[in-house]
Amino acid sequence: MLEGTIPSRPVYGALEIRPGRLHLIVADAEGAEAILDLAASAPPDFFAGAQIIYLPKKSGDKFVAGLEQLAPAQLYVGPSYEAALPRLRRVLAGAHMGLQVYLAGTEGLMGQAMLEATQAGIPHSAIQAEHRGSTVRRVQCVHCKGITEDVTHDPFRCAHCGLHLFVRDHYSRRIAAFQGVRVDAEDPGNIPESVERFR
Amino acid sequence: MTVIFKEETFHDDFTFRNSPEAVKRFPFPFPEDSYMYSVNLEPHKSYRPGSVYERTFDVDEHYVSEMRDRARVLAEDPLRCQSLPHMTLAGWDLLELIMTSKAEEYPELFELHRDGTKWHWINRPLGIEQKFTFLDETTLPYGPMEYITRQTQGDFAVLDQRDDNLWMDAGMVTTQADWSLDFDIGMNFFEWHAPVPKAHEMGIFQRALKFLLNVQQGSPARRLNWTMTVYPLLDTSPENYHKWGVMKKDLTLENMGQMMHLRVELQTFFRLPRSNALVFPIRCYLIKLDELVTVPKWARRFHRVIRDLPTELATYKGFVTNRPKIVEWLSKYDDGAPTSPGIWPD
């Protein structure tokens, strides 16, 4: 479960079927379970109008067969978000009125995909998001602006500039990331023990 | 009043000082001997000649040096000034508001000549003369918001109004109390205030937003906010926190009077005519504790405020570690005598 939240952080709900001409589903790892749960309440022709972009990450093949059984119009299983991005952009560029977007899985994935969708002009009201699985965070270093993916520990070392950062709850939708700030700024070298906060 | 602009710095050798005249007009933010958040908004009307409330955009002795500091910060980090594409019209609104106000209120310093859309702007203190076409971006060296806020003291957040909310969609932010425009741009009113402790639960932001959504053209509003800063740093940004955070350690009881500053923000709010955006200038005034205690009423009151401030607020404002030292130093100036109501010196 996600920890207590502050107003800059999106609130995630549970995916529900909405009427639409095309259903774009983007998920990673345990996000597949949200799709399978969605299928339980889907009308028979739902997946015939659905495209799934799925990134298994550490879950491997665990959910792939289940997704195939849904017989979506298109199922893409990819190695990373970066690899899937051109395809996601292509789908969004070709989207017409009546597109429904369903996001499921980690906050990092949902945040980035939500950003792509809104930049493509998809209204917020047509985008749903459900958190599943890992609570690892995508964090932007406020000093060097580099983004570190899949942060589990707090404090952690910025993958770009190497500063030790603590992870704030403050979240930017535009960057799809939490903010990281140097933990020993006022007392250089005094770095608290790193604790696994997100897993 | 003729302003004599000082040559001074806000970095490296930190030569910033207030003249005795500047101390007298300092916007001391505490009307009573204790402090808690409130929606302390009032009309931004001119009063008390000579005070920082007299003019729409106060120009003081630090003007030229502050603008030089802004240019220095922008050269290091251009992300301090950003404007989302739909905010250009609001930038022109802001340029018009500032140019017309300054030309009218400081005719010896600024001139604006308008012939239809052909405008001619003269800024004497900065030695700028610019002929341009209003609403034509190609005729200015920067976008309109950046152009005029490189010539105006204070940070500027330009807020788009839609969906009954305010959205931070443009800004010039180089003198901030530890918040990042680059991170917060695009956020709504509740989102960019998310890290502030207590105030959400108190309903402060709901009430403030309601007020701000209703600010009308020609009826600007204002409030004061405050924090404390070691060294006269205008740029206390999170971006550079890894550089200035360590400076807090330099503070001692011996150097307190020169090193510690009360930092006050005069925040104003103006409705803009064409874009219906709200511009939110955040003007930073710094005063050394040595300067502040030359006003006995302020010295007594400030001691009591800092001593009794809830720990959560002292932490949020970033001086909880140094607070015992500050209180000890200030206590010498507090004889326990009662203070008069209001912010002005006796």
Detailed description of the structure:
The complex is a heterodimer of chains A (199) and B (346). Chain A has helices at 31-40, 64-69, 81-93, 107-119; strands spanning 22-28, 50-55, 74-77, 99-105, 127-131, 137-141, 147-151, 153-154, 156-157, 164-172, 177-182, 195-196. Chain A has 199 residues and is an alpha/beta fold. Chain A folds into 2 domains: 22-131, Nucleotide-binding domain of ferredoxin-NADP reductase (FNR) module (Rossmann fold); 137-196, no CATH class. Chain A has a 5-stranded parallel β-sheet. Chain A has a 5-stranded mixed β-sheet with strand order 7-6-11-10-9. In chain A, strands 8-12 form a two-stranded antiparallel sheet. Chain B is of the alpha+beta class and 346 residues long. Chain B has a 7-stranded antiparallel β-sheet with strand order 1-8-9-10-6-7-2. The model of chain B has no long low-confidence stretch (mean pLDDT 95). Classes of the chains: A alpha/beta (199), B alpha+beta (346). The A-B interface holds A 6-9, 140, 142-143, 145, 163, 168-175, 179, 181-182, 185-188 and B 79, 180, 182-187, 190-195, 200, 238-242, 245-246, 248-249, 321.
